[in-house]
Amino acid sequence: MIKEQFAIALSERDKEAAIKEVSLKIKLIFPTRIDNLIILFTPHYHPKNILQSINLTLRPKEILGIESPFLIFENRLIQKGIICCCINNKNMKTYTSFIETGGLEKIESSIRASIKGPKKKDSFNFSFLSHQINPADYINAMRLSLGNFFNLFGSGYTNKYLSSNRQILSNNIHQGLTTFAVEGIEMSSVKLNGYLPIGKPFTITKAIPDKNVIIEINNKPAINIYKKYLGEKFDLFVKNNLFSFYPLGIKEYGIRRLLNIIHFLEDGSLTCLGKVNENTHGNIMLFDSSFIINDLEKALAPIKNKNNGLVLIMNSLARKNILKDLAIEEIELIKKILGDNFNIIGLFSDYLIYSDSQEGRINLESGTSLITLWQ
Amino acid sequence: MSLFIENLGITNTVIIVITIFFLITLISLLFQKTQSISLLKRELFHLNTTIHDLDQQAKLIIKSDMELQLYQQKIEDELNKLSLIKNIITTSINILDKEKLFHQINEKVINDIGFKKGLILNFETLDPLANINLEPHKIQSLKNILKYKKNFIKGQQFLSSDSELYKEFVNVLQCKNILVAPIEVRDLTYAIFIISDLLLPLEIKKSEQKSFLIICMYLSRCLDNIDLFEELEIGKTKAEKKVKEKTHELLKSLQKIETISKLKTDFISSVSHELRTPLTSVKGFSSLLVMGKFGELNPEVKKRLEKIDLNVNKLVDMVNMLLDIARIESGKTEVKIASSDIVKLILDVGDFLSPQIQNKKIELSTILPEKVLVLMDKNLIERVLINLINNSLKFTPENGKIMLKCEELLDKVIVSVTDTGVGIAQDDIEKVFAEFYRTATTAGMPGTGLGLSLVKRIIDNHKEKIWVISELGKGTIFNFTLKIDKNE
User: Fold this and answer.
1) Suppose B396 and one of A101, B61, B334, B400 were both cysteines; which one would form an S-S bond, judging by CB atoms 3.0 to 4.6 Å apart?
2) How close, in Å, is residue B118 to chain A by CA atoms?
3) For chain B, which residues make up each domain, given as ranges?
4) What is the model's pLDDT at position B344?
């Protein structure tokens, strides 16, 4: 995809003024035709007003909107604003589906219906989950309906959080599972990590994979792994809910995957984000901030080598909390490394969804940043 | 047979040798393996120790990292709080109107605390004082609840999430994360502040609670200040009104005084004028009688006539002075200001009065420049000098001293008449220029009590100053100023 086929715009104004501003900016670049419009907006704006205004001014063929607590625009972290991204490519086809709530069966049937059109190999699937959708059900449904899937990306919110995660799809406003399959464009991705294993490796000796529960680690209640390292600071750790700062790093099929702990149960079991199998080895993981300075360029090399394109960053709130001011620095550095030939937009969520490039497994992770390149 | 037995013996030996060799090799191999195993065991032990040490270090690292994270979070929260409070204070510090104050609580403030919606209701009337994004039907529902349950909020910093009222609010607002707090003014609940719908997908943080509480407290302070200001304003208006009334009364009184004063002056002038004619006649005849123009008189009669003559003279002086005062006060005497040498005038007056001065054996000295031209009415200033020197003469005992001084100071001259007389008490100093005023020390001495009054009026007409410095028993200095004529 050449650069002239997409445009991005940002407005940080209040309410309707912001929507008008982004609409005008997009209209200046594409005065006649808008094929696909992606809108990212912070909770300050009402999607109803966005939809009304966009339909009046831009009239896109397809519209996808995602609410996000923060946004990324080029080299900036946006606290309040609206981002519009227009993609005009005649070869690009999109297939969308939405369900408001539902368990495994409902999700599975919706996914089957939405991905009837695109061919699995050639399409890229984006999924956005609000807190009503259980990610475990989603992953199981995807596995059941698609088997192994290689080109899956997405983000979502867990049911612990109580704010709204509104989505716009076509001409409707929802909260649920929105899937957006894209054909006819090239996509690639990298994951920004930065976590290092620390301490002695452990073994998950007992778990309930389908429920995402770790019961025992090293034949002791799972919570003991944190008690061991925190000692007298454990109560402070629990009080401030710092599990997301110190995820577990699980080694499966030769690859280390972050496993974020959501909560611990009375019996010492840990509920986590993503599936975990018994007899898996792992470590406590600690974020190493020198990654941003030393390894970021290397991590972004696969994208930078593509020369140009639209970059969609799906970042996690846990990573932002851990990095603090460094989160802004990371965003600035990404832009600096990639350069002006890449247009960058992004959103934040609790967890990221991505498919394993080698085995096609679908993973959930928090604390990392997923960077996708559209060309 | 013997060959076979011999061969058998050699084979056995060989076998034994080979076996021994094999055993030795095995033993040696076993020994090597054992050594390797020991080495490996040692290495394993070291490795385990290293891993254990690293694990211990990992504990330290994680603990330190966690503490650092918490401190950073705390600092960030405090900074955000300060920024929020600073923004609110900056926009509302000069507001002295309650309506305008609540207007400052806008969407930005609510967003900065971390929420999307907010509502402030007047506690008594339940009228909305500020509404940010809350739907009208929800506001009405909240009002309906609060109508009967206001007391649940009184005296609390925050409405507890366990309370029934909190749950009802949650139900109405359809949001689990809300904060409710009263805004108090002088220990009375003035308003209720409700915020709901978190911006970020997180639970309410302590920093958000604190920020909300600080804003409620700040609003309470502002309302207190507004009340105080309103009270002050009312007080000020009342005071201003009173001052106005009093000023009006004073003006009226002043007008009355001026009228009375004018009447007095006219009366004095008219009476003095009327008295003058017959007094002149009496004076004339008494003088002639004393001089014996109408024949020799009996010594007793002559003595009494002399007394009459003396008293008539006094009366004539008094009437003349009263007339002068009246004329000056009423503006009938024109003050003719012209440039004239004050030094010459002082010397002339000194000469004129020198016989009386010499009679009393008083030492007259002068400290005068050569010549100073001043703007004055020469005749009137002459009268001033005569009255002042006469006063000094009157109240200075024999062998005393009188000094006449004139010195320049910027654009004025200060003329001083200093004596070593009886002095004036501090209580009397302010009153010496009043008409007919006699101090205790001068009460028995001759004089009308009008001289200094006339002197003051003349100096006032010149728009200059006169003042007195005195000490009882030591002496008195009278000073007055005149303007130097810069044109010469």
Assistant:
1) B400
2) 13
3) 1-91, 98-204, 335-484
4) 93
Q: Which residues of chain B have a pLDDT value below 50?
A: none
The answer to whether B68 contacts chain A (CB < 8 Å) is: no
Lowest-confidence range among A289-293, A301-305, B229-233, B240-244?
A: A289-293
Both ends of chain B: CA-CA distance in Å? 178
**CA-based nearest residue in chain B for residue A130:** B201
**Is the pLDDT assigned to residue A162 strictly greater than 50?**
no
pTM (2 decimals)?
Answer: 0.62
Tokens read off for B387? 């009255």
Smallest CA–CA separation between B152 and chain A, in Å? Answer: 26
Q: What are the tens digits of pLDDT across the range A30-46?
A: 888 888 899 999 988 88
- Confidence grade of residue A9 (pLDDT, cut at 50, 70, 90): very high
CATH assignment of B335-484, among 3.40.30.10, 2.130.10.120, 3.20.20.100, 3.30.565.10 = 3.30.565.10
| Architecture of the domain whose range is B98-204 | 2-Layer Sandwich (3.30)
Cβ distance A43 to B203 less than 8 Å, yes or no, reads: no
Distance CA A200, CA A321 (A): 26
Cβ proximity of A284 and A199 under 8 Å: yes
CB contact under 8 A, A229 and B198: no
What pLDDT does residue A227 have? 92
Portion 173-192 of B in contact with A at CB < 8 A: 175-177
A99 vs B: CB within 8 A = no
Is B75 at the interface with chain A, CB within 8 A?
no
Tens digit of each residue's pLDDT (9 = 90 or more) over A176-186: 888 888 888 88
List chain B residues with CB under 8 Å of A42. 199
Q: Is A258 left (phi over 0), alpha (psi -120 to 50) or beta?
A: beta
Domain boundaries, chain A: 3-192+291-374, 196-286
